[in-house]
Design a protein that fits this description.
The complex is a heterodimer of chains A (about 120) and B (about 140). Chain A has about 120 residues and is an all-alpha fold. Chain A is built from four helices and no strands. In chain A, helix 1 (about 5-35) packs across helix 3 (about 55-80) and helix 3 (about 55-80) runs antiparallel to helix 4 (about 90-120). Chain A is elongated. Chain B starts with 17 loop residues before the first helix and ends in a 9-residue tail after the last helix. Classes of the chains: A mainly alpha (about 120), B mainly alpha (about 140). At the A-B interface, helix 1, helix 2, helix 3 and helix 4 of A face helix 1, helix 2, helix 3 and helix 4 of B.
């Protein structure tokens, strides 16, 4: 089968990729956070392990995936429940622009908190 | 008599109830926007104290927070696993394997729902439990 790289196809493909990534994160998150039920020592150990640059990087990727999936989700709701099909390409790029701005803000905030927690606390 | 031309809907991967799944995927997607926002903003605020055991337990001692997290757990697992299920079904052709993978997705979903609920319910109102003399689990002594 041959696909052409149209806006709608790229949007659909990225929605799948980010959806799988967020689902994998959700599974890991529910698993990891259950150490909360095992008490203070267990939980503190796990959190110390997760407070490292590699996981910060994953966190930044996760925020990007969540933002994309949300922005494209808004587009899908406009298409399915509104008349978004008539402007689905324009709405894609408009939402991506909003998403990019939001991502810069989120990444900035996240970097501040992560660097702060690395320094002390 | 066997129908000519297009195979029956079931053989083309189209089952009745597809519209329901589509509708609920949109509905849960819309619901997840405010829930994720509240979850992330609260965690961000709490993160300033390093997300320590005590701050998280204090947060979860609030019954409204417990309710929100329970809703988040159920809605997010539903949305995620229905999505993953349909992606699997798009690429897996063998009927036996399709069913096995469907079963696996259901088992993983129910297992994670149980695990998440245990996590949320393991944190009761610590102060109330102490004053009533209720024995507390794990690190919540």
């Amino acid at each position: 089968m041959h696909y052409r790289w149209h806006t709608g196809y790229v949007a659909w493909l990225l929605n799948r990729v980010t959806g799988i990534a967020i689902s994998l994160y959700l599974i890991m998150h529910v698993w990891v956070i259950h150490h909360l039920a095992e008490g203070r020592e267990q939980y503190t150990q796990v959190m110390a392990f997760l407070n490292s640059p590699i996981f910060w990087f994953f966190e930044l990727l996760l925020m990007g995936a969540v933002l994309y999936h949300t922005m494209n989700g808004i587009r899908l709701v406009l298409i399915d429940f509104g008349n978004g099909a008539f402007y689905h390409k324009r709405s894609f790029w408009a939402l991506m622009a909003i998403g990019a701005v939001l991502y810069v803000i989120v990444a900035w905030e996240l970097a501040g908190v992560l660097l702060n927690s690395a320094g002390g606390a | 008599m066997k129908a000519k031309g297009r195979p029956p809907m079931q053989d083309r991967g189209i089952r009745s109830g597809g519209v329901t799944y589509w509708f609920f995927q949109r509905l849960t997607g819309i619901l997840l926007v405010p829930i994720v926002l509240v979850h992330l903003f609260t965690m961000h605020r709490v993160h300033e104290h390093g997300l320590s055991f005590d701050t998280v337990v204090k947060l979860f001692a609030n019954p409204y927070w417990k309710l929100l997290e329970l809703a988040f757990l159920a809605v997010a697992l539903y949305h995620a696993l229905v999505g993953v299920h349909f992606i699997f079904q798009d690429y897996i052709k063998r009927p036996g394997l399709r069913f096995t993978v469907f079963g696996l997705v259901v088992v993983v979903g129910l297992g994670l729902l149980a695990l998440g609920m245990i996590t949320i319910f393991s944190i009761w109102n610590v102060e109330a439990a102490r004053s009533l003399g209720v024995p507390l689990q794990g690190g919540m002594r």
